[in-house]
């Protein structure tokens, strides 16, 4: 049985870690490099850094941050935000990132997934999908959840797998920041449709939510932000409880 992964997510804006509810109302959560070092010590399996307001003038800052994280953090980490070309990915991997996450750029030009997986290997390519359930159907949203599309979640997930993505990071916009649990029904459906790992995101509020998303949602990894940033859940204690529920994790 593959080990389930616990992944703190650090949303970066202007060089700081921030957290909001339903993608808005952001508040400061600390220095990303210091938080990354802390999570590595506390038992996180991987980290995700997302530059949620990526613009050209901040791209250098992101590179500096990635170099800094690579120097100080000894667990794998993924970087996303504003990535739209093979050159962008080449730069970030050279700075020390283990994987990259693409979202809006993949929807706008799906061939990018093929190009990245062919050049760097599918293990480097995470496709993030932000989706919202509207009248019983899940639709993909772009640009940090601000732009709705008519693209259906499950069809898009199958396409990104076919194009060479190595993982899918699925965030339920309905659940994001609510601490009411993950979108396990949608996650289970995703898991039944694709053969690549699914990272669950959006809705973590307590330890049982993680257990539920692994058991009911069939997720391969669970990602969360505020419950870790603000000390509401201890990663080691979380993993011990998951072990108690016969969920295989690395301790």
Give the termini distance in whole angstroms: 15 Å
Rg calc: 17 Å
Number of helices: 10
Residue runs with pLDDT of under 50 for 5 or more positions? none
Structural class: alpha/beta
SSE succession: EEEHEHEHEHHEEEHEHEHEHH
In percent terms, what proportion of residues is strand?
A: 25-35%
Mean pLDDT: 91
Overall geometry: globular
Number of strands: 12
Main β sheet profile? 8 strands, parallel, barrel
User: What portion of residues is helical?
Assistant: 25-40%
Widest beta sheet: strand line-up: 1-4-5-6-7-10-11-12
Question: How does this model look, in words?
Answer:
There is one protein chain. By secondary structure, the protein is of the alpha/beta class. The protein contains 10 helices and 12 strands. Helix 7 links the parallel strand 10 and strand 11. Helix 1 runs parallel beside helix 2.
Which structural traits does this protein have?
251 residues, alpha/beta, eight-stranded parallel beta barrel
Write the SSE topology.
Blueprint lengths: L4 E9 L2 E6 L2 E7 L1 H10 L5 E5 L7 H14 L4 E4 L5 H10 L3 E4 L1 H5 L2 H10 L4 E10 L2 E6 L4 E6 H11 L3 E6 L11 H10 L4 E4 L5 H9 L5 E4 L1 H4 L5 H10 L7
Parallel strand pairs: 1-4, 1-12, 4-5, 5-6, 6-7, 7-10, 10-11, 11-12
Antiparallel strand pairs: 1-2, 2-3, 7-8, 8-9
Helix pairs in contact: 1-2
């Amino acid at each position: 049985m593959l080990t389930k992964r616990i992944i703190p997510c650090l949303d970066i804006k202007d060089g700081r870690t921030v957290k909001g509810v339903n993608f808005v109302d952001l508040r400061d959560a600390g220095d990303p490099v210091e938080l990354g070092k802390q999570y590595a010590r506390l038992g996180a399996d991987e980290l995700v850094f997302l530059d949620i307001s990526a613009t050209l003038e901040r791209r250098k800052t992101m590179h500096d941050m990635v170099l800094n994280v690579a120097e100080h953090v000894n667990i794998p980490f993924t970087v996303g935000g504003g990535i739209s070309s093979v050159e962008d990915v080449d730069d970030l991997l050279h700075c020390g990132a283990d994987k990259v996450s693409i979202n809006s750029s993949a929807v706008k030009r799906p061939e990018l997934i093929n190009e990245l997986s062919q050049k760097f290997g599918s293990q480097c390519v995470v496709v993030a999908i932000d989706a919202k359930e509207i009248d019983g159907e899940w639709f993909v949203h772009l640009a940090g959840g601000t732009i709705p599309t008519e693209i259906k979640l499950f069809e898009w997930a199958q396409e990104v797998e076919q194009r060479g993505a190595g993982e899918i990071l699925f965030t339920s916009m309905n659940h994001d920041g609510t601490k009411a649990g993950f979108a396990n029904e949608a996650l289970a459906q995703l898991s039944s449709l694709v053969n690549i790992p699914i990272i669950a995101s959006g809705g973590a509020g307590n330890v049982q939510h993680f257990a539920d998303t692994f058991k009911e949602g069939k997720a391969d990894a669970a990602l969360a932000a505020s419950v870790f940033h603000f000390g509401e859940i201890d990663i080691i204690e979380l993993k011990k409880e998951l072990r108690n529920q016969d969920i295989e994790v690395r301790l």
